[in-house]
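HUMAN:
Just now I want nothing more than another pair of eyes on a protein record. I would be glad if you read both lines and explained how they fit together. I have put the entry right below:
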Amino acid sequence: MNARGTSGAVAIEFALIGVAFMSLLLLAMETGYQLLIDSALGAGARAASRFGSTGTTVAAGITPPPADRNSSIQGLVILNSGNLLLPGRLQITEASYGSFAAAAAGGGGTAGPGSASQVVQYTFTYTQPYLTPMAAAITGQQNKIHSVHVTVLNEPFPTN
């Protein structure tokens, strides 16, 4: 009962629906991966900011041991992200303030992880290239910028 004019209809329908289905599948994968990167950055940022608030110079568990406090903070972000993040794509900025009120007012902070009992605002920024050209075409950019802001109060650690 196959009419001569409908012999390729199934193939054409599959091609039309298949393109839309694959596009949605690739966008779902891209979204999931970018959410994974965002979650990994958040986990690493929380661990690194907790470490930074202690005033300790060298973090345990990082091989080779970091040379200074800032290297330890970056190493902890990478380690606590499950080594999913790459150090070359990670930027960390730190600004220290005398109080939470000064931090909330913005501006006037001192660069660096601060000293004992200071409030420190960490900004962790990670640049992740899109996995698919379709996501880049939709957003008009080649990379997704992930950013996490954490504000902590340093412990009353001894200053050297």
